[in-house]
Amino acid sequence: MSVRHERSRPVDRRVRVQGRPVDSYPSLPPETERGSVRRVTVVGEEILSRPCQEVTEFGSPELSSLIDDMFLTMHVADGAGLAANQVDVDLRLFVYDCPDDYGIRHVGHIINPVLDLPGPGSRQLVEDYEGCLSVPGAGMAVPRTDRAVVRGLDKDGNPLVIEGTGYFARCLQHETDHLFGHTYLDRLSKRDRKEALRQMTERREDVFAQRAVKAAGLGR
Known about the structure:
Layout: E1 15-17, E2 20-22, H1 31-34, H2 61-76, E3 81-83, E4 93-99, E5 105-116, E6 125-131, E7 139-145, E8 147-153, E9 159-165, H3 166-179, H4 190-217
């Protein structure tokens, strides 16, 4: 998911890593120092339109390396979240580095996530700007609930429960959608989907160029 350029409330410097509050955290997650940049898949590629496979092996160097690569790729692409199929890997996993509407920064990864949305009486449907690293250069208003909980596992197989409100709840829903083979385009009307694809066609090369410059600036 793309980073939102406006926030509705003043920024608070609190950070939650894997759902837990921490006193301080670097602007770039440590994973980015270990990772390599991978190519981001683009809407129309088959891997983005089918459900991903569950992760069954935990604690491996390969899984840790994939997460490191995803964090760096997300940063280079100026993203707030990134799913494994967006780097052409067929696994149920996503990473995130995303603010909520209170300015709290949420950083982490989750494997085999299950999305739990609150009941109709305790949630609000909000239309807000949404972009996607696999739909480069496009952005549209998409309705999402203002609260979400995702339950899953970390890279070592330990259980995780990640709660989100506002824009972070949107991120959790967006990335979980990816793992079921959906992009935000699937939630748009035919007219809005056509407009998003028009935006992508017009702007994608500029987006790719910006990513290349950012990667080069990091020596990657």
